[in-house]
């Protein structure tokens, strides 16, 4: 993947000698350095993660038995939501509540702490 990203970036992004263009990298599996495995992490960090700002991201997972959503929508901070009534099968609309915001993508422990403070 990294070779392909580098070739696409060289051709289309704001590289010296090139016209300024919008450059989007979209892949739900690219979250942090660990997403690239043991050998590709350092190169991915330098080529992608340190050079581009996350402008939009959505993630959902379980923290301490609770269904939690994580949203980043530029220019806002990362927002952590908890699902309300997730087991109410009759109610097709699942409501959520904002429980915390973070300037940087929060780690699991930060979300867990926010969840405890919310409850």
Overview of the structural elements:
This protein is an alpha+beta fold and 119 residues long. The chain is built from three helices and four strands. The protein has helices at 2-12, 37-49, 108-118; strands spanning 56-63, 66-73, 78-84, 95-102. The protein has a four-stranded antiparallel sheet with strand order 1-2-3-4. The longest helix is centred in the middle third of the chain and has 13 residues, at 37-49. The protein is elongated and about 55 Å long. It starts with a helix and ends with a helix.
Key phrases:
alpha+beta; 119 residues; four-stranded antiparallel beta sheet; 26% strand
Number of helices: 3
- Nearest-angstrom radius of gyration? 18 Å
Oligomer: single chain
Query: Going across the major beta sheet, what is the strand order?
Result: 1-2-3-4
SSE pattern: HHEEEEH
Report the average pLDDT across residues: 78
- Secondary-structure-based class equals alpha+beta
Dominant shape: elongated
Poorly predicted residue ranges: none
**Main β sheet profile:** 4 strands, antiparallel
Helix content: 25-40%
Task: Tell me what portion of residues adopts beta-strand conformation.
Answer: 25-35%
How many distinct beta strands? 4
Distance between the termini: 42 Å
